[in-house]
Specification:
By secondary structure, the protein is of the alpha+beta class. It has helices at residues 61-67, 127-140, 224-252, 258-283, and strands at residues 11-15, 25-31, 35-50, 58-60, 92-101, 104-112, 117-124, 152-168, 173-179, 184-194, 197-202, 205-210, 214-219, 289-292, 294-295, 303-307, 310-314. It has four helices and 17 strands. The strands form three sheets. Strands 2, 3, 4, 5, 6, 7, 8 and 15 form an eight-stranded antiparallel β-sheet that branches. A six-stranded antiparallel β-sheet has the order 12-11-10-9-13-14, with no helix packed on it. Strands 1-17-16 form a three-stranded mixed β-sheet, with no helix packed on it.
Amino acid sequence: MVRFGVIFIFTITLSVNAFADSGGERKVRAWGEGQWAVVDIKTVTGTVMILSPVIGREIDFEERNHFAVFGGETKYNRNQNISVLKTPVSGFQSAVFLKLSESVYGVQVTYRDEVGQHHRLLPIKDNGELMNMRRYFETFAGVSETDDAYPQETDESVSFETVQPQFQSRERLSGQLVLVGGEKVRGELLPIIEARQMLIDTENGFRRIDVDAIQQVGIGGRGGKGIFQKTLQSSIYWGLMGGFTGLMSGTFYEGASAKEQMLYGAIVGATVGGVFGLIDGLLSIQPSKTFHLGSLDRSSKRSLEISPTQIRLRF
């Protein structure tokens, strides 16, 4: 008896917005090479803090590598209560410690990706974690005597935007745009943007819609037909491959029946292919989504989004 086991591995991402009252704006903008994305843009203002004279005003790329920070958990920080410094940041450029308000701190991380340079705010839990990070850097650098003047707040104020993609276009998708004034435009959304205009293929032809005229973007869900198609295609392919393998086995090995081996190989191949096709189809499911553009709600809302490959909890 052959048993097939399927294991789904879920990843959990916890995103805590400790500064939800900063407001912000949700809009459509160019993202990548000619593509578009729905993004949340927030403005953060704070005062620069020097955590320790060991690192000075900012942590640059070389210091990041030297102190083993912002690259995930390592043997150096594994047993340290410094969750912020363990945060992996791809494309890291620099990090600056900030005081955002009374007893509220964060880290402005600057990073670069294929789109360009961005900023990200990492919240610091409390003053205890702030002091733990200071001790980490000074212990790493071999400093035995500490200066009580640090962390030290400076007179330098900084303001920057954080841009968080909520949806990125990669292919044609069925959808709907609700325009200022209430007009609804249905069709297939193309994954391109030109001169701040989205392109949608409607039943009456292509239309170009200026992003400033859009109030809501709706993305249609995908799933059912794709699952059946992927399962069927995978079953046929692997069934044929299994049958061919069984035929070769029955032809070249003594005591083996070519017909029986071909049938056995086809059954096993089709079963295995069907299972993998089903899994592939399930992983391709995308629920429908609606994005309301404009000012973000300043109140902190919790939402739970579940997909076959990811569980994401937002605060």
